[in-house]
From TrEMBL:
One of its GO terms (biological process) is intra-Golgi vesicle-mediated transport. Residues 616-633, 1164-1177 have a biased composition (Low complexity). This is Trafficking protein particle complex subunit 10. The keyword Zinc does not apply. Residues 614-652, 1160-1195 are annotated as: Disordered. The gene is TRAPPC10.
Amino acid sequence: MRILFNNNIPLPPLELLHSFFFLEPMEWRRTYGRAPKMIHLEANFVQFKEELLPKEGNKALLTFPFLHIYWTDCCDTEMYKSSVKEDMMRWQNSLRTHGSSDWVIIVVETNDTKKKNKTNILPRSSIVDKIRSDFCNKQSDRCVVLSDPLKDSSRSQESWNSLLLKLRTLLLMSFTKNLGRFEDEMRTLREKRTQPGWSFCEYFMVQEELAFVFEMLQQFEDALVQYDELDALFTQYVLNFGAGDTANWLGSFCAPVRNWSGLLLRRPIDMEKRDGIQRGEASLLDLRSYLFSRQCTLLIFLQRPWEVTQRALELLHNCVQELRLLEVQVLEGALDCWVFLSCLEVLHRIEGCCDPAQLAANCSHTVGLWAAAHTGAVHHGVPAPSGLDFTLHFNSLQSPYKKLKEALSSVEAFERHYLELSHAAMEMYQAIGRLRSARLVGKSLAEFYMRKGDPERAETFLQEALKSYVSEGWSLPVTHTRRQVAECQKLLSKTEDYLQTSALLAGDVNLTTEERKHFCQEILSFTGKSGDQPHKVTLSMGVFAQLTQLKFHPATASVHSGAVLQVELTLRCLMPVSVRIQQLVASIHFEVDHGGTHGRSKGAQRQTHPGTVVFSQSNSSVGPPSSSGAGPSLELDEVQDRSPSDNSLNSTGVICKNTHLLMRRHDSNSPPDTPNCISPPTVGIKEGAQMLKVQDVTLEPGNNSITFTAPPGTYTLRQLCATVGEVQFILPHIYPSAQYEVYSQEPQLTVEPLSEPLLAGLPQKVKFTLLTGHYTVKKGDALQLSNTETMPILPSTSCTARISSPTSELVGESTLSIQSSEKVTSISLPPAPPYHTLEFQLEVLCIIPSGADRPANERLTNGEVRHRPRSYSHPDTPMTAIDQRMSIDCPWSIYSTLLALTFYIPFKTKHSLLSAGNRKYIQVCVQNVSDVNFTLAEVKLTEKQHASLELQSLNTKTQQLLCCKHSVFCLWEVRWKDDLPSCLQCVFSANFSPLSQDISAYKPFHYQFQLERVTTLYSVKAEIFPPAGEQHCRSGVLCGLEVCITRLTDPAEGEIAEDSKTETDGPKTTKLMYEVADSSSNWAVCGKSSGMVLMPMTANATHKVQIEVMPLFAGHLPFPKIKVLKYLPHTAAVAIQPDPDSCVENDSLSLLDKTLDDQGDTASIRSRGSVHSVGSGDQQQKGVAMPRLDPFSPGQVFNHSHARQVLVLPATDDHIMEVNAT
């Protein structure tokens, strides 16, 4: 920043002032809310001259005086009044005239002046005050005192610091104010761009002045923004010109280009081009070159050299387009020279600011410039220096102009530089992974070799370029490049490769018909030669014809060995003329897993074939489909292993049918296996493969149909081969795979129910299906079914068999002859041809098991032991299932066929014994668990062993409706004359039928069960007595509970008894355990709640127990629950682990046998649960014989007070209740 000073005294050194200014940064707060920045002020002190003051309209910021300083050391008042004051006034008048208001007066104070004028001077303060009074009335800070500036003292240092701070502040304020004014004037000038006479060059110089100021302040980013705005503004005007909106000032840029020297980046400012812009004489290339050179300089300052390369590529492209839009005349080759030299100049500039390691690591940024230079060299024969030399020998590079002059000196020098540049660009592209760009450079290099007559090198680069075109789907470049490849191969005498490429071109629709016929004739000419080749030439089928469709007749693709299966192929010939094929062969693969002629492993579960397979095709001129890159998809099939006897499933699995495609090794350098490739791989028909053949077929252009006849077996079509003379066209893989089957099937017999589920006890119809397979059913053939007692076959007067063809068409019907004997049922079959279906129905009945003893095992007709069917619970239904198996002897096999049917019992039956004192009742519950409504009739209950026993029915209805998911209860009273037997063998029988059928359809149902220990041994009676003096019990007051246990019968055989310990010869006694418990918490048992009694084993023996209980609630409370258990001493216990069914956990109870014997009736057992075992747990686990408790069977103990209740009154306590009434 310029500072003008006026002085009449010697000044301190300007270098010292300059260094002091730049030493400390200042915070610069800009206008319009922009973020503050820290900047270093750099001042330029210039002697004051009036001609240096800015004139009206001057927009130069770099030479603008931002601050004016007046230096004086005047100490004498007379001198001040006579000369200094007048000089100051003239100085200020000059500033005021030119509009400069930023000034400061510095008064220098030294010790020498003090001593020299000691007697006739006034105090310093009076001179300073005088100056401030005369010139700084309202701005007193504009007058600054500097004390002893040349001395090294603290006072001098403080004075300097104060002065420098004041100068920095005033300078920054002036700069900010004048910069804001400059920016406003610049915006005003830019807004006038639509007015006539506006000049872009004039505006360019104004905004560049602002950029220079930012660059001076080292604000390079802000300076770059100014040039970017100028770039965008000029670009927009050029685009508008192309759209028809012209500007007058653009005429100077439309002048013909006379200078194409390229960019000049080694100088910070190209003053020659800047002067041309300032004069309005610059061309478009001059403006762009100068603008880019300034942007490049600032980007280098910002340490962003790689952005320079990116902008350089954009500049080269935009300049070419702008020259076309502005219709600027350029000499031929001049623009390419400018591009070439500019690229090298940018690379030179990047070299100067980066080390070799950085250049090698960031070659992806510079390779574009090398490619651009190569393009210019290709277009107009302008060579460029070696990129490899640039990478390895940066400092040895010659000037771009010297290289250009050297390359143009001779053809050999041009070729040498051109090849070096091409190979270097390819290597750099490959190093950064841009293979497509490298191959494009290689294609241009191939054309160069073709012009030189070197097809061998040219073919290599053409093949690489063709890979890119094919993979990216460029149709026309693929065709053009293939023609060039074919030309190279013909010159190199590569016969097989040339035929392959010719076939591709003959089927390419991008060529004309004449061109396609030419290449097709090349192939046919070779096929007409005989004996010249040692072996046939193998080519890919995809370049000759395409398999579009495969159709089977019949569509199922599966016929028996007596029928004919035809395979029809549709081939789309790609040749433009008719081609005669000597032989067309389809290779087929035998499928061992499907059984071939020995049988079909999958049987009826074989998947149905669609009948027609359509093969997807892609245009031969474009890239391969997306699936080709990923390879063929998995082709999976299900494999099942079934038993040959009953067709039951043993195992299942998954198999991959196209493993030969998926498990191949792919070479990374080989092309994909599609007809769009450069050279499809050579494959041959596998040796020893079975084939389908046709002879002498003529393929016309377009779709052709060829039909094969399939041999017996299960085969998959794998390959296709067409032979034309000495050439074989082979389709290596037919995908998706097509499979057919000409089978020889064994007869199969299946039995299945007509309706689900099969109900036991009712007649059910089942369907017999016979697939005759290769067997011919003759007259007299019969099926021999083994009869069983549990599932007899019901006789039928009319049973018709239906015979149908493989296509399910009815062939005929015939009445079956069924003959039954004691063990075998014979069914005579009607005659039926092979591979037909014979169907008939039989009625069977599964007997519901009654639970009786099983008879001895029977034997089937084949000698095997018949195992009785067992019922079991099925997880999918509440009904009980029964599996019935039948053995069938068939005339076509020496082995018996075992078939199984599952029946379900529709009922669940349970029984119970009920007692009322000595009276006994038997209840049977029949539950219908099926979905059918039944009618029950003639319900009976009989006892098999005791004739004197009478079962009196209490059932009033003779028929009862039993709905689905409902139950029916039946009740009988047991009556006896002498003694009630201890064990009863009962049989429940009833007739049932579905609700929709009449009485003739009733079927019997039996249910056998056994009741043991049905005699009542003991009766238990309980009474509750209120407290003395009370008529009723009250809650919270103790009451008396008297329990009376009475023996009703004499001891029977098997009852355990022991002698009384007090009377050796007395009556037999037994030990009983009683327990009083209340699970509903209505009573509190006080004191003893359980104990043991010795009960005489005589009729009417009675024992009473007194217990105190307390009712806890008022009301009619049920009696506490009273349990009586059998106590078995340790002598009767078995010395093993106790039966878990007879043991129940108890609460802290551990009584030994001795303890019970000693305490007897006075034992107090603190247990609220059932006591089923006593003794230590450790002793039980060790198998020691311990006493235990056994419950009585249902009916052996009758409790008279089981359902009794007693009235309990509330307590008589008086309570006070407060009631507020309003």
